[in-house]
């Protein structure tokens, strides 16, 4: 049956390419005309949500929120999630209340069409470059100050290990501590089962929102990491 999943995967690549091709001119129109004024990031994020819905409709994948969020969507947060496949990005856009900006890998900004969306709407970082890391931290600080949340995959890239979670980078937790902004973990299940390399299959992708983690005065990055990991492991170990 792997050949069938591969064929379905090729279909999936064609569909997401189609969604991106259709979305980019709409994004361009929104940013070029500044039709929404100060609300432009919020208007553009709605396009991302619509595009994410289209992707999952084409893929015949249903995204289910198994544990609903308990936070106020009008406030700003540092959202984090585990990351095992490319399905995680549209899934997070679909189930996260309010507007946020992703922190993406800098190399994604060079991808035709898709890179335009990241450059205009989200933030990017090259974790191997100290100057890039400092610049991205300043950009995230500015975003939170503007009332727009940040979404980070703290594993840095897709988890290709045999462990439920790969090692977390410090960025999300340093940002939380420096701005006194709560971290909200979200755990995604079944993502890797539905999409692995070029093999795609329909099914259910389940999302579990954790409780906001408010940084304490004098708390360490490692302590904050451990709290987030404990919440996520609770679901990952029982999937």
Write the layout of secondary structure elements.
Blueprint: H1 2-33, H2 40-59, E1 61-67, E2 78-81, H3 88-95, E3 100-105, H4 114-121, E4 123-125, H5 130-145, E5 149-152, H6 171-179, E6 183-189, H7 191-194, E7 195-196, E8 199-200, E9 203-209, H8 221-236
Parallel strand pairs: 1-9, 2-5, 2-6, 3-4, 3-5
Antiparallel strand pairs: 6-9, 7-8
Helix pairs in contact: 1-2, 1-4, 2-3
Cα-to-Cα separation, first versus last residue: 23 Å
- Give the % helix: 40-55%
How would you characterize the largest beta sheet? 7 strands, mixed
CATH homologous superfamily grouping? Glycerol-3-phosphate (1)-acyltransferase
CATH architecture verdict:
3-Layer(aba) Sandwich
Question: Which strand order does the major sheet show?
Answer: 1-9-6-2-5-3-4
CATH topology: Glycerol-3-phosphate (1)-acyltransferase
SS class: alpha/beta
Domain count, please report it.
1
**Shape verdict:** globular
Low-confidence stretches at least 5 residues in length (pLDDT < 50)? none
The radius of gyration over CA amounts to: 17 Å
Report the sheet-strand fraction.
15-25%
Total number of helices: 8
The residue-averaged pLDDT reads 92
Q: Could you state the order of secondary-structure elements as H and E?
A: HHEEHEHEHEHEHEEEH
What's the CATH first level? Alpha Beta
Number of DSSP-assigned strands: 9
């Amino acid at each position: 049956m792997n050949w069938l999943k591969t064929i379905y995967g090729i279909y999936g690549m064609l569909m997401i390419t189609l969604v991106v091709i259709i979305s980019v001119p709409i994004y361009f129109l929104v940013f070029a005309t500044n039709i929404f004024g100060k609300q432009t990031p919020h208007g553009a994020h709605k396009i991302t949500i619509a595009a994410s819905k289209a992707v999952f409709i084409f893929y015949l994948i249903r995204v289910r929120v198994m544990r609903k969020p308990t936070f106020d969507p009008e406030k700003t947060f540092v959202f984090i999630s585990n990351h095992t496949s490319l399905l995680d990005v549209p899934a997070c856009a679909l189930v996260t209340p309010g507007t946020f900006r992703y922190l993406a890998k800098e190399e994604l900004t060079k991808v035709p069409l898709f890179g335009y969306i990241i450059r205009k709407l989200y933030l990017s970082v090259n974790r191997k470059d100290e100057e890039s890391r400092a610049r991205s931290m300043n950009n995230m600080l500015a975003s939170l100050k503007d009332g727009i949340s940040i979404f980070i995959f703290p594993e840095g890239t897709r988890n290709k290990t045999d462990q439920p979670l790969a090692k977390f980078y410090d960025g999300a937790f340093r940002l939380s501590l420096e701005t006194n902004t709560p971290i909200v973990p979200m755990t995604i299940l079944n993502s890797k089962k539905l999409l692995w390399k070029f093999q795609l299959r329909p099914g259910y992708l389940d999302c579990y929102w954790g409780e906001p983690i408010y940084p304490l005065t004098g708390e360490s990055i490692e302590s904050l990491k451990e709290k987030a990991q404990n919440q996520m492991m609770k679901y990952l170990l029982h999937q």
